[in-house]
Amino acid sequence: MKKLFIHNPFFRILTPPVYGIVVYLIILLVNNNVEQITTLISNQEVYVSMALSLIAFESMRLTIILLERVGIPERRKMVLQWLSTTVVAEVMVLLAISQYYTWVIGFDISLRELGLFGVIFALTALLYNALYLGNRYILYENTQLIEQEQKLREKLEAEFTTFRREINPNLLYDSLEDLILCMHTQADLAEELIDSLAALYRYQLVNRHREFVSLAEELQAVKHLLRLIHARHPRQLIWKVTIPDPESLQVLQGSLLTTLDSIVRNTLISEQAPLVITLSTEEDEDYLVLTHGLNDKLLLHPESQTAFQQLQRSYSIYSDKPFIQVKAGRENYVKFPLITIQQSAIASA
Predict the structure, then answer these.
(1) To the nearest whole number, what is the mean pLDDT of the chain?
(2) What is the domain range of residue 264?
(3) Residue pair 291/332 in contact by the 8 Å Cβ criterion
């Protein structure tokens, strides 16, 4: 509301003097007294017209503010606003000009002059409302366009973030560095790393438009990721899965990969303190649980943390149950809401 031109201080200060001069010129033309234009600056009636314009504009502005606060339906509001602003402006202007004639000039204003002021300021109210509604419509259109641009920008940023999460450039660079180190001395290992890297990215790109995949598919991709991790941390990561039938469960595509990558990047790992990660289910709570020992780095990896937070927001969209991370003692528990094949089918239907 504050962006409308009628509330602009410059408009409120500068418009009444200009419009007052126009009103005075109109009165001279109607009364056939055009020769008085030569005494425009020194003529007291010019300043009276300016004051009347100020009274009319401010009274209409205050009336519009009051109607905005009442909350009248839009269709009725346009007619009511025009009528109320016209009546208020007419009453205020006619009352002011009558008092001016009585107390300053010394006699009552004639009905002809009173009618002339009434017609002029009735047209003024019509013009004022037309400008107000036009400005409000343009502001509404601009606001709609800005909101659309904002939504489009947010969508593009979300798609770019998702694409980066799927590609995982940090993993790519780390794997390429490991390949450079071993390709001349351990050709077989380098070939295995290339196969695992290709399989991992193939899995992510092929399934990028799927919301959910079976846990068995995700675990197959995890094997490729573990092979790449073992190249950097040999015999320092132990992966345990205690799920009897992973084919019957569904997970958000890339959820285990993102979580595992975040855990490895933000945990201190050594041969003396290997990272043990266990994947199991809690049937009573319908959660898939990833458990590992806590040994956080002093400086956490920001991009992996961001990807992990994006995963949490994604689960909040697709599941009524929350995605949980609980740190208890020396253990960290990451709980994924469990989704069965039957539930997924019902949701997609």
Answers:
(1) 81
(2) 168-348
(3) yes
